[in-house]
User: Which sequence fits this backbone?
């Protein structure tokens, strides 16, 4: 693996729309790709992990999920986005980010751009 990788759910229209925003507005050297087209074995990921949350696999081998993965992606960008990524890693913000991320993940089919295909499988719901 020569570059870091950010993996999202390509079956979800909301997630795909978010990935388009990343590709357009966040300059990063990381690959941004749907897990359905990623070599999960090479990345050391499972489909279950990818269905649960976005994933980051750094070129340095560091793995992160959910808002931690987003923080890593932002940290791999230009200085302005790196500040946002550092803010997301700040303990009080990070503590709030996980419940917010889980809420979005559970309700992504209801969010703008979301479809019924975006619904998290029932096994992944709280």
Assistant:
């Amino acid at each position: 693996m020569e570059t870091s990788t950010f993996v999202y759910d390509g079956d979800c229209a909301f997630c795909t729309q978010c990935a388009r925003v990343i590709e357009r507005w966040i300059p990063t050297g990381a690959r941004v790709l749907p897990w359905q087209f990623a070599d999960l074995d090479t990345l050391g990921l499972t489909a279950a992990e990818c269905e649960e949350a976005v994933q980051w696999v750094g070129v340095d081998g560091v793995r992160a999920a959910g808002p931690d993965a987003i923080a890593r992606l932002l940290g791999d960008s230009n200085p302005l986005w790196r500040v946002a990524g550092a803010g997301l890693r700040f303990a009080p913000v990070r503590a709030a980010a996980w419940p917010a991320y889980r809420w979005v993940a559970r309700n992504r089919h209801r969010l703008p751009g979301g479809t019924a295909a975006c619904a998290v499988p029932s096994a992944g719901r709280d």
Observations:
- The mean pLDDT is 89.
- The first strand starts at residue 5 and ends at 8.
- Helices lie at 13-25, 40-43, 47-52, 66-75, 79-89, 91-107.
- Residues 5-118 form one domain.
